[in-house]
Amino acid sequence: MTRTRFTAAVAGVILTAAVLLSGCSGEGGNRSSGKADSGSAVAPEQAQSQADGATADGKVPAAPKSGGNAADQPTVTRAIIKTGSLSIEADDVDAQRQKAIGIVTGLNGQVVTEDSGSDLDGGITRANLTLKVPTAQYETAIQRLSGLGKRTAIHQESTDATEAVVDVASRISTQRAGLERMRALLAKATTIGEIVSVESELTRRESDLEALLAKQKALAGQTELATLNLVLSEPGKAPPAPKKEETGFLAGLKGGWNAFAATVTVLLTALGALLPFLVVFALIGIPLWRYRHRFRRTPATAPATGALPPAE
């Protein structure tokens, strides 16, 4: 009887332990499945949100870089200064010059300076124009101007002035903020010394701001308008063939005669230049010389002798 009770107790303990173990494993499985279900439920939501973000602007947003937010990095427009020169040969320089001015005007540009040369008949044989065109139309201007004739030379140069433009803009902003603070201090100044000191500093900062604004305007003019130097000229002529040097007796005689004739020509030229002066000197000098010579040859008059005293 006692053994039967002991066996029943052991069997009850084993059965209880088995039930507890099965319950723990089921709960763990439910927890694991719950986590998996929640993960699977979140994944479609994230995928849907990413898809919505991708279709909202037509492209997938880029991941932000480490160390900074992409929204804090504004896009900077590059400021480029473009300059160049173009040489064109044309038969009618004057007509092509007028066409060049029309091309630049049509591109909202202007002619800054113009220098031209002409022949003895008054026809223009050379023209040098300094042109200003919008930077966006620079390549178009070169293409159209190259069609005026034969392009013999071209030079282009681009300078990135973005750093200078951004620096000047930043300094202008800082200077304006400083001026506002100085005006506020001037309004609060109570003594004459404070007023004089603040006004002096305010004047200096206003002068600095004007200089920065002038520099900003100059940079804007250089970046918004490209400079192009256009040279129009007639086609070059072939150089004449060099003359063959002559040698021998006849060549020496000819050279000596040419030298003699050149010397005589120089002497006659000098004589012709001096002849008017010689005539004037002769008209004045000869009468004076004759008068002086005549005066020297005239004898001096003897003094009159007194009467002899009577003899005693």
From TrEMBL:
Protein's UniProt name: Uncharacterized protein DUF4349
PROSITE patterns in the record: PROKAR_LIPOPROTEIN
Region (Disordered): 27-76
Keyword Cell division included in the entry's annotation: no
Species this protein is from: Kribbella voronezhensis
Any Pfam family hit: DUF4349
Domain annotation DUF4349: ranges: 78-289
Entry-linked InterPro entries: DUF4349
